[in-house]
Write a structure and sequence with these properties.
By secondary structure, this protein is α+β, with helices and mostly antiparallel strands. The protein contains eight helices and 19 strands. A hairpin with a 2-residue loop joins strand 1 and strand 2. The chain is globular.
């Protein structure tokens, strides 16, 4: 099992550890609910160094990214980021990812540089797919093993991070980033992105620098203001916002259109892999949709539970579910046949021999 640069720190904090995508990761330090509420009300610090990072650099870097991703990266200015996905040739999803348009200080004349941030479980799969389709004057460089990543999330994140950086964080718009000095260490990328819906920043740096920044943040802030947070609360936080998790809600067999990701699938682009299949899907081949749902029962929906209609006919499947600490009720996501996807539709998820009534709900569950 792989470790992150901070694995020993998590163990020293007596975190409950778990295997996630082949990495030894902290599931929780105290309780999932307490850590969740700290992120919503104050700030939490996540080690997400298991994520993968690729540098795409060359004269035709943009051409490669446009071919392998669904969003339109030509819209990105230097210092901007974009959520996107990598479609396969059947119209499914190889992975979802972030695309960063980097500065060109280290580029030769005429070159551009991007960073792709991919899911830990898909690092090698994504790398192989991109290299397979790289017929351009462009290099693909895997920097995952030497790159650490922290997510500082919550209402107090700006105030906490501003104390240890020379960057003016209030000048970094949502889905933008800057490079500068953090914790006395230079060349740190600070991005106004995150997976919690609570606001905050993601911090990219080399492994040693990431450890230094973690230690500084933990040492200089009281636990009433900042706590370490594990994967358990990361999942409940993202689910309250209706964010997809690769391997649960999206995979190689799910279309971005049925997953509600049409907004990052730019069919007006000249070309990208899988485009023609997705166009056909949009013309009428989509028979199911990913929806959110809530229940007044105390039973929590779980991945792979069947979803039925009133007559007991199977109409879909649960992909994610949890008890929402903020809303104090069970919430879930799943695919259902189109006619049951309207807001307010009555559905049932099946837990063992019990059928639990639920209602389709617009996402995000947590309204800002």
């Amino acid at each position: 099992m792989k470790s992150t640069p901070l694995t020993q720190h998590h163990m020293d904090l007596e975190a409950k550890m778990t295997d996630f995508a082949g990495y030894m990761m902290p599931l929780q330090y105290s309780s999932v609910s307490d850590e969740h509420q700290m992120v919503r009300r104050h700030t939490g610090l996540f080690d997400v160094s298991h994520m993968g990072e690729f540098i795409i650099k060359g004269k035709q870097a943009l051409d490669l990214i446009q071919l392998v991703t669904s969003n339109d990266a030509s819209k990105l200015e230097i210092g901007e980021a974009q959520y996107s996905c990598i479609p396969n040739l059947e119209g499914g999803i190889v992975d979802d990812l972030l695309v960063y348009r980097l500065d060109e200080d280290q580029c030769a004349a005429g070159e551009q540089a991007f960073m792709l941030v991919v899911n830990a479980s898909n690092i090698q799969k994504d790398l192989d797919w991109i290299i397979q389709h790289n017929t351009f004057d462009t290099r693909v460089i895997n920097i995952s093993d030497q790159t650490g990543l922290l997510a500082l999330q919550g209402p107090s994140a700006l105030k906490i991070l501003q104390k240890i950086t020379t960057l003016e964080l209030s000048n970094i718009p949502y889905y933008s980033f800057k490079k500068g000095t953090v914790g006395g260490r230079s060349n740190v990328l600070v991005s106004a992105t995150g997976y919690t819906g609570a606001g905050g920043f993601e911090i990219y740096a080399d492994n040693k620098t990431i450890v230094d920044i973690w230690e500084k943040l933990m040492a200089e802030n009281d636990r009433s203001e900042l706590v370490p947070v594990g994967l358990g609360a990361r999942d409940t936080l993202r689910l309250e916002m209706g964010y997809c998790l690769y391997g649960n809600d999206i995979n190689d067999q799910t279309s971005p259109l049925e997953a509600g990701l049409g907004w990052i699938t730019k069919l007006e682009k000249e070309n990208f892999l899988g485009k023609e299949v997705i166009i056909k899907q949009k013309q009428g081949d989509i028979v199911r949709k990913l929806v959110g749902f809530t229940t007044e029962d105390r039973r929590v929906p779980r991945h792979d539970y069947s979803i039925e209609n009133e007559n007991g006919e199977i109409i879909g499947v649960v992909t994610s579910g949890t008890y929402s600490p903020t809303l104090e009720m069970p919430i879930g996501m799943g695919y259902v046949q189109n006619q049951y996807s309207k807001n307010g539709s009555e559905i049932y998820f099946v837990a063992g021999k019990k059928r639990i009534k639920a209602k389709v709900s617009k996402m995000p569950f947590l309204k800002k």
